[in-house]
Each structure stands twice: as C-alpha cells, then as structure tokens.
Specification:
The protein is an alpha/beta fold. It is built from eight helices and eight strands. The structure holds NADP nicotinamide-adenine-dinucleotide phosphate.
C-alpha cells in the first residue's frame, strides 16, 4: 500500500474543497484545511485568509509551521464577486484570492511542496486579462471578472511547470464540473433564480472526484476538464501575457 500523503486544501470548509478534504481523509491521508474560521468539519485545520498579501503570508507561515512537508497543495479557495471590492493592497478582491494568493503560496511553500493541484474553471475560456486594468478591477464585471481571474491563474500553469522542472514539484489544473455550491450566490431575485438553477447541478462530492484522482499523479502542466485531459484553449496559451502577469505579480508580491 502506498504511503499516506500530507494534503493541504485551501477553502476546505465547504463546497468542493470540503468534499476533497473528506475524500482524502477517507483515503487515510493527513489532511490539513486552510480555513478563514474554525471549521464545522472534523479535520485538522490552519486558520488563514487569502484576502491580501499580509494575511496570505501569515497563512503560509502557519501552514509551514503545521506541515514541514506538503505532498500536495490543493488550491481550491475562490470567490465569484458580485461587486467591485479592492483589498488592502489595492487589488480587485477576486484577482487576489483566485490568482495572486495561489501564486504567492506557490512561491512561499515551494521548498516543502511536491505537488500542486489547482482547481480551475472551464469558464476560463470566456476570460480576458488586461494587465493594466484587471488586477485593480478597472474592467470589473459581475460575471466576467470571475472568468478573468481563473484565466489569469491558468496562464501561470505552464510557467510553474517549467520553474519546477528540475526540483520535481509538479502542477496540474482541473475543472471540477458544474457543481451545486455557494459559489457566486447572490441576494434578491437573481439569487433566487440562481438557487433554482443550481438545484439541477451536480453535488460537491461529484466535483471532488476529478480533483482527488490527481493527488497522486505524476504529470505536470496538464489541464483536465473533469476526468479528461484537454489542451488549453489559445486564450490560456498566450505566453507573452503569461510572462507579463508573472513579472507583475512577482514584483507586487516581492517574490522571485
Ligand atoms: N461550483 C462550481 O460549479 C465550480 C465550477 C468550476 C470551478 N469551480 C472552482 O471550485 C473551487 C471551489 O469552489 P466551490 O464551488 O466549492 O465554492 P464555495 O462553496 O463558495 O467555496 C469556496 C471556498 O473558498 C474559500 N475562500 C473564499 N475566500 C477565501 C479567502 N479570502 N481566504 C480563504 N478561503 C477563502 C471559502 O471559505 P469560507 O468557507 O471561509 O467562505 C470556501 O471554503 C473554486 O476554485 C472554484 O473556482 C467551481
């Protein structure tokens, strides 16, 4: 039987992340969830907020203290914002939490990590990133911004795979499916409509499956649409844009 892994899941207190954490724990892995508050699930946890540079650095320190080795880091935490909010660093909140926070954690924890599984979203194909406007939300849109942030995050995939080629850290990304969670919940009439639509969507357990199966895989730089490996669409293969976003992020977050 293979050795149990230490698996860290961000946003592991609800939705897909919680189901991933529970499946991994059932497989006898050591699971540590990163959560903003005390979780209502019986799992080991570290409290941390991926809201801004300060709190994300603190979360990385807390994770490092709890886990000398991280076999798999699952970047799952994300938001779908309905209005423009800027964090204390001046970044549009979803751009930070969905894209810059995983970028920063990857840099801060890379020496102790072996593998990253990035929970992505098929909606990346609808995204577009303007390096001047998107980071600060100058092009904010209640639907498109989510797609833009998931695209920014996915553009980093080949660059991290290349960065870690020699050290052996691997990274894959996966779209979990269209899943009934609290993501993007709204108040008012639109919220009620969305709730009704979501009723037909798949369960968080179904969404966790494609993520959990990647915990032990060997490859790197791959994108999976649920269970199927797929080539990235051209919009996520723009190397000039990816390099520009990488350089901007590294400078803003003070990492090399
Ligand atoms: N649901 C879908 O149909 C779907 C489709 C494609 C991709 N995805 C992706 O799947 C992943 C999980 O989404 P979900 O649907 O399970 O959403 P969800 O139920 O809304 O869960 C999101 C998780 O992210 C955490 N989070 C948000 N902001 C955070 C912050 N600042 N610091 C730390 N944690 C934070 C939340 O923590 P709290 O519990 O503290 O709020 C929550 O645990 C996301 O990456 C999403 O983009 C979902």
């Amino acid at each position: 039987m293979s050795e149990p892994l230490t698996v860290v899941v961000t946003g592991g207190n609800r939705g897909i992340g919680r189901a991933v954490a529970e499946f991994a724990a059932a497989q006898k892995h050591r699971v540590v969830i990163l959560t903003r508050g005390v979780p209502d699930v019986d799992l080991e946890y570290v409290v941390g907020d991926l809201a801004c540079v300060r709190t994300t650095r603190a979360a990385a320190d807390a994770l490092a203290a709890a886990c000398p080795r991280v076999d798999v880091l699952v970047h799952n935490a994300a938001i779908w914002p309905s209005r423009l909010v800027r964090n204390e660093d001046g970044f549009e909140q979803a751009y930070f939490t969905n894209h810059l926070a995983p970028f920063l954690l990857n840099h801060l924890l890379e020496d102790r990590m072996r593998r990253v599984v990035q929970v992505s979203a098929g909606l990346y194909v609808k995204g577009s990133v303007d390096p001047e406007r998107t980071p600060v939300g100058a092009d904010f849109h209640a639907i498109r911004t989510y797609a833009n942030t998931k695209l920014a995050n996915l553009l980093m995939l080949p660059l991290f795979a290349e960065r870690w080629q020699d050290s052996g850290v691997t990274i894959d990304a996966v779209h979990p499916g269209v899943i009934r969670t609290g993501l993007g919940d709204r108040s008012g009439l639109l919220g009620l409509l969305l709730k009704a639509v979501k009723f037909a969507w798949s369960s968080p357990e179904k969404g966790a499956g494609p993520v959990v199966r990647l915990l032990r895989q060997e490859g790197s730089g791959r994108y999976f649409h649920e269970l199927r490996e797929m080539p990235l669409e051209p919009v996520a293969r723009d190397r000039d844009l990816a390099r520009r976003l990488w350089n901007d992020a590294a400078k803003a977050l003070d990492v090399t």
